[in-house]
Amino acid sequence: MGKKRRGRERLITCESCGRSVPRDKAVCINKRSYFSTDLRGEENVTAFSDREVCYCVSCGKHRKIFEKKKRQRQRQREREGF
C-alpha cells in the first residue's frame, strides 16, 4: 500500500518571511482593512474587508502577536489581582 498522508497537515506560507509551516503550527489572525473615498456628501463610499493572515512561530513572536503561555498566565494573575 502506498502513502495516504494521514495525519499530515497542509502547509501554509508565512506572510512576512515566506517560510512553509504546517497549518496547525501557524499563528493565524484576522486582519480588517478599511477603505474610504474621503468624499463629503452622497458619493462617499466605505468598504470593509476581512482576511486571515498566517505567520510562522518566529514571526508571530517578533511581531508580538502571541507570547509564551507562562507570560500570559502572569498577566492574567495581575489583572485578577486588581
Fold and architecture overview:
β1 and β2 (20-22) form a beta hairpin. The protein has one domain (11-81). The model has no long low-confidence stretch (mean pLDDT 83). It contains two helices and four strands. It is of the alpha+beta class and 82 residues long.
Number of domains: 1
Radius of gyration: 20 Å
* Percentage of residues in DSSP E strands: 25-35%
Helix percent band? 10-25%
> What is the β-strand count?
4
Largest sheet: 2 strands, antiparallel
* Terminal Cα span: 61 Å
Biggest sheet: strand arrangement: 1-2
Number of helices: 2
Regions with pLDDT < 50 over 5+ consecutive residues?
A: none
Structural class assignment: alpha+beta
Mean pLDDT: 83
Return the string of H and E elements: EEEEHH
Shape by Cα distribution:
flat
Give the key terms.
two-stranded antiparallel ribbon, 4 strands, alpha+beta, 82 residues, 2 helices
Can you summarize this structure?
This protein is an alpha+beta fold and 82 residues long. It has two helices and four strands.
What topology does this entry show?
Layout: E1 11-13, E2 20-22, E3 27-36, E4 46-55, H1 57-62, H2 69-81
Antiparallel strand pairs: 1-2, 3-4
